[in-house]
Design goal:
The chain is an alpha/beta fold and 254 residues long. The chain contains 7 helices and 11 strands. It folds into 2 domains: 161 residues, Spore Coat Polysaccharide Biosynthesis Protein SpsA, Chain A, CATH 3.90.550.10; 77 residues, no CATH class. The strands form 2 sheets. Strands 1, 2, 3, 4, 5, 6, 7, 8 and 11 form a 9-stranded mixed β-sheet that branches.
Length: 254
């Protein structure tokens, strides 16, 4: 059977990382790349693997590729510290590794939010490529929304990757603020975004999440997801506008 490396990036994840590592301890190798945690994350990781690396944070895409490059195996399963590989998914992966039919595999990510599993809202099945040959795939996309870019055949697995997302609404709002800081600057570098986007895209995002993706079937959490998604989109384009039009030391302008 082909050997596989579990690659995880971390930063102050002592509350999550134990369960994440438990879910991939069947892997032939575990690689952890930490960006300078001040809690017990690194200590916990070293109880599972001696391949723990500390690398100053360069961005989501770059850090995940750094972890892949540290792997000694051709096959990679890449997860975040707040994710868990289900037993069904682990069994499917091990079965595929005996005689791989593809260069990469999509998995269904199921998220737990506000006390329940989210089954609609565009959050499930949230298909992600997380198992791949490192010679045929690399992390790409626009930070912080990374994705695996594959040169070859991709097939789908049925098992779930469990995602224990934001602890509460306050955590969600903090993440939105942090992620829009990153994405607005990334989009600006690529000359994307306009004032019209700031006006038109947020309501479109709400309609897509709540109605087209049936977020209403997730109850109040589905409504909150739709509103927070619209807010994320608004804030991203508002910050792009600010970077373009409001001179300030914080925006790197005189």
């Amino acid at each position: 059977m082909n050997k596989i490396t579990a690659a995880i990036i971390t930063f102050n994840e002592e509350g999550n990382i134990h369960a994440a590592l438990e879910s991939v301890k069947w892997a032939d190798e575990i690689i952890v790349v930490d960006s300078g945690s001040s809690d017990k994350t690194v200590e916990i990781c070293r109880s599972y693997t001696d391949k723990v690396f500390v690398n100053p944070w360069p961005g989501h895409v770059q850090q995940k590729n750094f972890a892949v490059d540290k792997s000694s195996n051709e096959w990679i399963i890449s997860i975040d510290a707040d994710e868990r590989v289900s037993s069904l998914l682990a069994s499917e992966i091990k079965k595929e590794l005996r005689l791989p039919r593809a260069d990469a595999y999509q998995v269904n990510r199921r998220s737990f939010y506000l006390g329940r599993w989210i089954n609609f809202s565009g959050w499930y099945p949230d298909r992600k490529v997380r198992v791949f040959r490192k010679s045929r795939a690399r992390w790409g996309g626009i930070n912080p929304h990374d994705k695996v870019v594959v040169r070859g055949c991709v097939k789908r697995l049925e098992g779930d990757l469990y995602h224990y997302t934001y602890r509460n609404i306050s955590h969600n709002v903090q993440a939105i603020n942090s992620f829009t800081d990153i994405s607005s600057r990334e989009y600006l570098l690529k000359r994307k975004g306009s004032s019209f986007d700031m006006v038109l895209r947020p309501p479109m995002a709400f309609i897509k999440k709540f109605f087209i993706k049936q977020g209403f079937r997730d109850g109040i959490p589905g409504f909150i997801i739709a509103v927070s998604t619209a807010y994320y989109v608004f804030l991203k384009y508002a910050k792009i506008w600010e970077l373009k039009n409001v001179p300030s030391e914080e925006n790197g302008k005189d």
